[in-house]
Design brief:
With about 120 residues, the chain is of the alpha/beta class. The protein has one domain (about 20-115): Vaccinia Virus protein VP39 (Rossmann fold, 3-Layer(aba) Sandwich). Helix content is about 35%, strand content about 15%. The longest helix is centred in the first third of the chain and has 11 residues, at about 5-15. The termini are far apart.
Length: about 120
């Protein structure tokens, strides 16, 4: 996301700027043959959009913040809104549906991690 667009999102929605940038480092770790990706903590869908463009993959997001999820849904098509610790993915998808799951920059927000 270009700097001016990023700052516009920060100003309009009050988003933390560190949550809405591109993640080329993560993108480069995704296998070339990926078909279905779950992006947990998808923010506004920038990484998912890049995955769709680069690999032609189906990308499903999970996002806690409703405003971010709404923007991500425009890019990804399907976004589950809620806390990943309380979502049962089996309610939405068959076993082994995803061949890649991304948990970039979310581990520090999980309750399990905060208790330690």
């Amino acid at each position: 996301m270009h700097g001016s667009r990023k700052m516009e999102m920060v100003k309009i929605f009050g988003f933390n700027p560190s949550y809405i940038g591109s993640r080329e480092d993560v993108l480069n770790l995704v296998p070339d043959n990926v078909k279905r990706v779950l992006d947990v903590g998808c923010s506004i869908g920038i990484l998912g959009e890049e995955l769709k463009q680069k690999f032609g993959a189906e990308v499903v997001g999970v996002e806690l913040d409703e405003q971010m999820a709404k923007i991500a849904k425009e890019k990804l098509g399907k976004v589950i809104i809620g806390n990943v610790e309380n979502i049962n993915l089996a309610d939405y998808f068959a076993p082994n549906y995803f061949d890649c799951m991304i948990f970039a920059d979310i581990l520090e927000h999980l309750i399990v991690c905060k208790k330690r």
